[in-house]
Each structure stands twice: as C-alpha cells, then as structure tokens.
Amino acid sequence: MFAVRVSVVCFLLTITSGSVEEENPEFWRKSAQNTLRSALSRKINTNVAKNIVLFLGDGMGVTTITAARILKGQLQKHSGEETVMNMDTFPNVGLAKVYSVDFQIPDSAATATAYLCGVKTNLNTVGVSAAARNGVCRSQKGNEVTSILRWAKDAGKSVGIVTTTRVQHATPAASFAHSASRTWYSDADLPASAATEGCVDIATQLLHNIDIDVIIGGGRKYMTPKGFPDPEYPSDASAQGQRRDGRNLIQDWIQMKEGKVARYVWNKTDFDAVDPEKTDYLMALFEPADLRFDVERDHSMDPSISETTDKAIQILKKNPKGFFLLVEGGRIDQGHHSSRASAALHEAVALDEAVSRGLELTDEEETLTIVTADHSHAFTFNGYPFRGNSILGKSPIFASDFLPYTTLMYGNGPGHKITNNKRPDIRKVDTADKDYIQQSAVPLDSETHGGEDVAVFARGPMAHLFQGVYEQNYIPHAMAYAACIGENQQHCAITAKPDENPDTSTDPGNSAQNMPDYTFTILMISTLMRILLH
Ligand SMILES: *[C@@H]1O[C@H](CO)[C@@H](O)[C@H](O)[C@H]1NC(C)=O
Ligand SMILES: [Zn+2]
C-alpha cells in the first residue's frame, strides 16, 4: 500500500505543473467557441469528386487512433492528449459496421471486398461475393465482384495502390483480384485442385485484371521464378522467388507497358530518381514480402508511406480526368497481432503523416479523401494514467496483485505469461521499447481482430454522405456516387438540367448549365464586331 501512495503523490506533483492555462475556464470556452465557429462555417461540398484518395489503416480501430494521437503529440514533446491528427481535421465522421457474411469479427479480405467492391462477403475471400466459399476455387466462377478501382479506370481515371505490405496482400488484392483465398499470392500457393480448376494467383491477376498505373509496396518474391535471387538479400533463401510457372512478372509487366514510360524500382535511390512528370507507370517493390515496420525501416533503402503516397499522387494527378488511389497503412494490424503496441502505433502515426501529404497535394474542392480502417483489434486503453503519462507507459496505481500494468494491453495474444500464479513484474521493464509485448488476458500466439465499428473520416466533395452509422460496404457506393463513376450516375445527368434541380440554380458551380445561351450571345456579338471592323 505504501508503494501505491508514494507513486500517486509523485505523479500528482508532476502533473500540476504543466496545465496552468487549462485551469482557467476561459481556455476551454475559447477552444469550444473556435470549434463551434469552424463547424458553423462549414459548407456542404456538392462538387463532383475528380479524385478519390482512400487511406486505409489496417487494424486501425478507434483505440488505436486515440493512442496514436497521443504518441504523435508525445513524440513532439507535448502532453499528447490534446494533439490533433490530420485525420481529426476531417469535417465528417461516421461509423462502419464491419462484420462479414459469415463471421461476427471479420478479416482484412472480407472487409476490403466490402469497402472496395461494395459487397459484403466471407472471411478470407477477395473480390468475390459470399456465394463463393473460402478456399474453394470452383465456387469462385460467376461470383466475382468488381471494385471502385475498376470503376474509376473504366471512367478514364488513373488508378493506384500504395501499401506497406506485399502488394498481393488482402487489402490491395480486393481492389484488383478475385480469389476464393487471400493466401494465393503466387502460383506456388495455389492448391493443386485450384490450379486444375483454373484459378489464378493474385500476383498474376495484378498484371492482367486492371491496367493499374501505380503499384507500390512489397512482394517481389511472388513475382519471380522459384530460386530467383532477391536483389537486396541475394543470399537469403526465404527471400528468393517463389513462382512455379517460371514467369518473371516484373519483366512481363515492363514488356506489357512497352511504348509507355514504365519504371520498376526496388530501392529508395531509384525510387527518388523517378520523375513523376515523365512517368506513366510505376511499380515499386521494396521488400521480398511485407515492408519493415516504420520503427525498423532502413531509411536509405525504403521510403516512408508519406514518400510513396507523394510519388503516387504526383504521377496519377497528371490525368485530366482525375484518379483513384488506395493508400494502405497495412502493418498497424501486424504490430497488434504481435502485441507490439509501439510498432503498431508508430505505423498509425506514419499513416497520419501520409494523410497530411495527400491533403497538401490535392484540392479539397475536387478531391474526396477518406480515412478509415477495415476492422479493430482486441486492444485496450485502460487504467487511470495521469495527464501526459507516456502512452506506452504504466499506470501509476498497481493492480490488486501489487504489480503495475501498462495503459495499453490486449484482450488476447502472445503477452499472456503467468509464472507461479503471477503476471510478469514490469517495474524495471521499458514498456515503450519497440519490441515490448503488452500483456493480455488470454494466451494466443497471434492477437485477434476486434469487432466494434470503425471510424470513417471524410473530406471533400460529398463528404457529408459519410455521416452516420452504416454497413462497411456502403463506403465505395458513396465514393462512386461522389465521383460520378460506377453504377449510380443518374444524379450526374440531373445536375446538368437546371429546371429539374431549382435548389442549385443559383450555385455558381452550376453556371455551365446556362452556357449555350451565353455562348450564342457571345458568338453573335463577336460576329457583329468582326463585320463592323472589316
Ligand atoms: C538500386 O537498384 C538499382 C537497380 O537494380 C541498382 O543498380 C542499385 O545498385 C540499387 N541501389 C542500392 C543502394 O542498392
Ligand atoms: Zn489482421
């Protein structure tokens, strides 16, 4: 008990120092009035979205967002809680229900099919409806569903995928592939029956399904023949090519783009040298499989997710018809599965920095930006830590077993370790270390996903459509509506007829409707002028 008291007193002494202005009620009133003013000045943006950027934090539940926000502030030497993430500035926020057709708590394949293809499906499957069965090739045929990446390409837009995982991974795969199993990365991963029944691996589909302008992530080994040495790790057998069909899909891709400027790069030096103005197509694969965690990234070899997002947008935005870009922070999820909260949160902070880059390079008037997650994790933010306590730190008050516990922990996962009926004593452990594994209630090798709703942040044309609580598969329908692509385009024709839409007739954005009359008058005047002048 004495130890508990001492630690409480110490913390009370430290917190009272930094928050003098917050003791003044005017501080909070002023801050609330500023927020109110900005809410009141908000105008609904009913423009057509020329561009769409979808930022997807894999496993980035609301707990992760709050904890990452605090980490972001603390990395800048602030208390942290009051920090504003870039995604926090988006004017519209909704909640998406993430369950899959067959599971209460979903995986990244089923959810990616929902938020990219607009159809909920079964666990482990990508780009197919729930009529297809997990892992059953036969059930795939006739049940394919297309994604917003395809709808955008069909409308003449440029399209791209940026991820921190292998580009064949579930999230990007749902944008271009149809597969009864998300794990069919290369032909070597296809069961013999699936191959005879005509199913094609995801890497091959990456080349042949949709003409994708920008492909950035990892996953070299699924593209090259078995035994093909990796350029970065030539002596590492696990990094070698995997393909049984002997194809080198990277070479094939370069050949397919003949006549265009198509660049393939695998390291940062070459990536930095890619001139977006002079590049039509870019494939950048920085690792044999997934990229490294941002906290472990070799800055000389691999760019950050902000840098890859930047390059992708610079290339895609040259298309006068606009673009669709999927940016995935794919390893927040993997950090959580290992219960390495530090690694997971740093990934989320890196994604938020990429959001900032995206906003800088695009115009809110014509670009719909969405930030969301596929699903959450069994990740808790708990206890009564004092203000400014390290988000990766410990509660000042011990638990009833007289041991401290961390603010962040997991409901299940690899962090469940009991010896002599006791939890590990972490008093001398640096719980902020990038390798520290937070404790969990239930032992599992890999921590699981969580099933609660995920946040959807929206900014730009038609962003107000993302308010409310809805099914996750609503997201691409609303994005497509905003961009006048995909199946629902009646409103795009309607806005061209002013008499049917009187509310918008005073909107200067719709003055194009009156163009024919003005054009005629101007033509008349200029013709008269010409006659008079000659
Ligand atoms: C980057 O890739 C190019 C092309 O393969 C290679 O020539 C160059 O040496 C690589 N750079 C580094 C630092 O490995
Ligand atoms: Zn996962």
From TrEMBL:
<dbReference type="GO" id="GO:0046872">
    <property type="term" value="F:metal ion binding"/>
</dbReference>
<keyword id="KW-0472">Membrane</keyword>
<dbReference type="GO" id="GO:0098552">
    <property type="term" value="C:side of membrane"/>
</dbReference>
<comment type="similarity">
    <text>Belongs to the alkaline phosphatase family.</text>
</comment>
<feature type="binding site">
    <location>
        <position position="171"/>
    </location>
    <ligand>
        <name>Mg(2+)</name>
    </ligand>
</feature>
<keyword id="KW-0479">Metal-binding</keyword>
<comment type="subunit">
    <text>Homodimer.</text>
</comment>
<keyword id="KW-1003">Cell membrane</keyword>
<keyword id="KW-0449">Lipoprotein</keyword>
<dbReference type="GO" id="GO:0030282">
    <property type="term" value="P:bone mineralization"/>
</dbReference>
<feature type="binding site">
    <location>
        <position position="449"/>
    </location>
    <ligand>
        <name>Zn(2+)</name>
    </ligand>
</feature>
<keyword id="KW-0325">Glycoprotein</keyword>
<keyword id="KW-0862">Zinc</keyword>
<feature type="active site" description="Phosphoserine intermediate">
    <location>
        <position position="108"/>
    </location>
</feature>
<dbReference type="Pfam" id="PF00245">
    <property type="entry name" value="Alk_phosphatase"/>
</dbReference>
<feature type="binding site">
    <location>
        <position position="333"/>
    </location>
    <ligand>
        <name>Zn(2+)</name>
    </ligand>
</feature>
<dbReference type="GO" id="GO:0005886">
    <property type="term" value="C:plasma membrane"/>
</dbReference>
<keyword id="KW-0732">Signal</keyword>
<feature type="binding site">
    <location>
        <position position="337"/>
    </location>
    <ligand>
        <name>Zn(2+)</name>
    </ligand>
</feature>
<feature type="signal peptide">
    <location>
        <begin position="1"/>
        <end position="18"/>
    </location>
</feature>
<keyword id="KW-0378">Hydrolase</keyword>
<feature type="binding site">
    <location>
        <position position="328"/>
    </location>
    <ligand>
        <name>Mg(2+)</name>
    </ligand>
</feature>
<feature type="binding site">
    <location>
        <position position="58"/>
    </location>
    <ligand>
        <name>Mg(2+)</name>
    </ligand>
</feature>
<dbReference type="GO" id="GO:0004035">
    <property type="term" value="F:alkaline phosphatase activity"/>
</dbReference>
<dbReference type="InterPro" id="IPR018299">
    <property type="entry name" value="Alkaline_phosphatase_AS"/>
</dbReference>
<protein>
    <recommendedName>
        <fullName>Alkaline phosphatase</fullName>
        <ecNumber>3.1.3.1</ecNumber>
    </recommendedName>
</protein>
<dbReference type="InterPro" id="IPR001952">
    <property type="entry name" value="Alkaline_phosphatase"/>
</dbReference>
<feature type="binding site">
    <location>
        <position position="169"/>
    </location>
    <ligand>
        <name>Mg(2+)</name>
    </ligand>
</feature>
<feature type="binding site">
    <location>
        <position position="374"/>
    </location>
    <ligand>
        <name>Zn(2+)</name>
    </ligand>
</feature>
<feature type="binding site">
    <location>
        <position position="58"/>
    </location>
    <ligand>
        <name>Zn(2+)</name>
    </ligand>
</feature>
<keyword id="KW-0460">Magnesium</keyword>
<dbReference type="InterPro" id="IPR017850">
    <property type="entry name" value="Alkaline_phosphatase_core_sf"/>
</dbReference>
<keyword id="KW-0336">GPI-anchor</keyword>
<feature type="binding site">
    <location>
        <position position="375"/>
    </location>
    <ligand>
        <name>Zn(2+)</name>
    </ligand>
</feature>
